[in-house]
Design brief:
about 950 residues, alpha/beta, eight-stranded mixed beta sheet, six-stranded mixed beta sheet, 23 helices, 45 strands, about 30% strand, extended
Length: about 950
Amino acid sequence: MFIDLLHPYVLLLVLVIVVFMVFTSRKLSKMYKFRKNLIIILKSAVFLLLILAFAGLSLKWNAKTVTTIFLIDASDSTSTSRGSAENFVKDALSKKTQKDNIGVISFGDNSLVENFISKDGSFSKVEGKVNSSYTNIENALTTAVSMMPQNSKKRIVLITDGEENEGKALKIAPSILDQKIDLKVYKLEKTKGNEVQVDSINVPETLSLGQEFSVVVNITSNVDTSTKITLFSGSTKVAEQKVQVQKGSNRFVFKDTAESGGFKSYRVLIEPDNDTELKNNEASTFTTVKDKPKVLLIEDKNGEADEVEKMLKASNMDYTKTMASSAPSTITELSSYKSIIACNVSAENLNSGFLNSLDSYVKDFGGGFIATGGEDSFALGGYYKTNLEKVLPVNMEIKGKKEIPDMAMMLVIDKSGSMTEGSGGITKLEIAKEGAVRSLDSLRPNDELGVITFDDTVYTVVKLQKAQNADSIKNNIGTIRPGGGTSIIPALGEAYNSIKQSNAKIKHIILLTDGLSDKSGYDDLIKNINKDNITVSTVAVGSDSDQDLLKNIAKDAGGRFYFTNDISNIPTIFSKETFLAAKKYLNNRQFTPIIASSHQIISGLSESGFPPLLGYIGSSAKDNAKVILKSDEGDPILTVWQYGLGKTAAWNSDISGKWSRNYIDWSNDLSLWQNIINYTVNNYESDKVTMEVNTDGSKGTVTLTDKANKGEVQTKANIITPDMESKEITLYPSAPGVYSGSFDAKTPGIYMVKGTQQKNGETLDNAASGLAIQYSPEYKISSDSFLIDNLVKESGGTIIKTADEVFKGSPKDVSGKTDMTPYLLVLSLILFMCEIAVRRLNIPYGKIADFIGNVKDNTVLKLKESNSSKTENANENITAIESLNKRKKNKEVELAIDNEMISLDNLNNNGKGSENRKNKKIKDIDTKEEKIKDEHSKNKDNKEIQENERKDSKSETGVLDTSQLLRMRKKK
């Protein structure tokens, strides 16, 4: 063991401390000697310990233990060799010695610790679930190196097939050499069966509309076999063929035509007759078809979009018309269109894929969106809290001066036995429960909701309460179960009694049933309902319901009647009815739109004014939106805004002619809608910026080049993954006018990338591209067989064949090291506290010193008695006795002086006391010191007299006892 100093030059501070201590000791000259010495010793020790700590004092020794970490490749490429790897580790562990510490790590793309480093070293099998789609040897080695203890010799045993496809293991070789790690590699043999894989699918990077082109599919096989090849464009199958593949490389060419513009993805799937791995049987690619802007036209009912379609044809604009249920469901399909027009479309009839993709289509990819009104759109179409509301410039909820007062809603739901009927395994009652939840979601937190169910008995499921208790209400709704017969009057009466107690301004009841009940007895109840300003709407489900009864109830109670044979419409009806209850959303009356603000859309169209409209759906404009036209009551009619990169517009009246019939023959109607469509189609794509997206391992790299080099601008890229997740990354400057960034790209499929440049919140330019990620290299037939050999060579390791070789030889010596800095700092702190205590506390140092002196004198006395004559012993005894008595007196005086000094220090430190008191203290101290000096002088004279007496007595009388000497001294 030896000492090591990290910063030896710090020891020069010892000289400074010596000078400091000499100077300090002078200031302590009037302090009692014992106390002064103790303070100096403690201070010196504190400074010395601190200097050693700052110098980095460590204790070093040669390590005796050996730490061995086994790295087991658990990726998919070693799945057939997993048992062999586990047995190798178990066999090796049986040969370890007492000086060996063992750890086990499994790895694929990531690393997991199977066994932490310990003496035990027990192992049975790989338990951790790593990401086995990749092999990252670099990450595994880094994990092992970081786990290695410093005070131990080091060994890593790597068990792998060497097919690294993530990271670069050679980067760790210098670290392995530097830390003197003994690397041993045990190669796993990879068993390869009959295998056919898709290497790539290639199409031109860009195409023109109508262009015929080739789709090239490259296939590699290690066996002669036949396979079926299927080619998809988006989700559409464009080709299918049975072919024969030969051992080696194969190339197949398909023909296709660019029939529509925009971003196009292609995917190839092979189904070989003789194959072992399925994950390498698929590949993807993409291209861009350049074309004039194309519009997607969506309608919910036949005829709703006819007028818009006429205008698109008149404008010679390319478009596709579809029903809501058939709308595109992926961002790839939507990106083929520059803008989307939804004509009186209910959110309930749009598929979830469309709704989920709409936000990113507009915000991230610059798409346009126009929503037109009608009784199945906006709030009445279930847009509330959906992506439709998110992208549009208007809120579904009316706010501001026309904000709806607080509302109370009671739902009365039939739960009789007939409500267990349905289709597709879904009952009417389950759909009705969903409708109740939809009504809850349409209410504001301060609104109230109650739920009553009935068969031949009435059940209160949810007492009328604030809608903010949403979770509790939903749980209670979920407990509804079917029952027996049907009795409406008691249930409707219970709902009335409950809701009439509410203080809400609007009170509404929705009654849903599918059966028959008493046809009379409702008059008094309806009369009371009307008296308390409560409205009732009814929903008849199926042809077996009593539609006439329900119509009359709704009519007499000021509500609306609904009939449906399709139970899937029930949630939409409930949501729509919740908004209609406010009576401010549906406006069936004639008015003339008022220009709220000037805009390019109405430029040149407003000189003669706008024709009157016959109705609209109420909403409220969002904060950053621009209202161009408004109603006579201030409600928005035409509103636009920019949402992300895209632009959207809301036309709150219809376009079919029911409310807008005066516009059909208006001379400027075509120009108005051309302007609205062109506003949403216009985006920022230009040739001023270009973007490239490439792969680097499992990363996608984005490089955006700003040809104009605008200087400091905020540059970002939005990525849509194959799983339809949206990710945003910042692109940082990497060269003048060049911005770069990266993202994870491990999931196979198409990544759509949109780069944008903004300054002060304004979008300047953007560019779009994509990235096709194939299956992991883990599943490829070919592999890099030289990786392990190069790693072993660069790191100074060895390749082993058997488990017996693991513990053979000894790793290079490693010096163990213990940093003493924490211990030195703790000890210096303790001594520092002791030094403060010595300086500040009034400890009786004189008594302590006297006690030590007495012990010392008594010890000397005993020694002298055993080594001198009887006379000398007697003289010494007398001298000791007198010395003790005199010392006791002197010590008492010294103690008094010390206490006076402490008192004087306190006066000076506290700044208290007059100068007279301080001077008196000093005078007392001087007097006592003079007294001690006199005593010392007398003691000196006495010692000389005693010495002479001793000599005289010895020469004259020979040996005298102690009593005789005392008598002689008295005479003198």
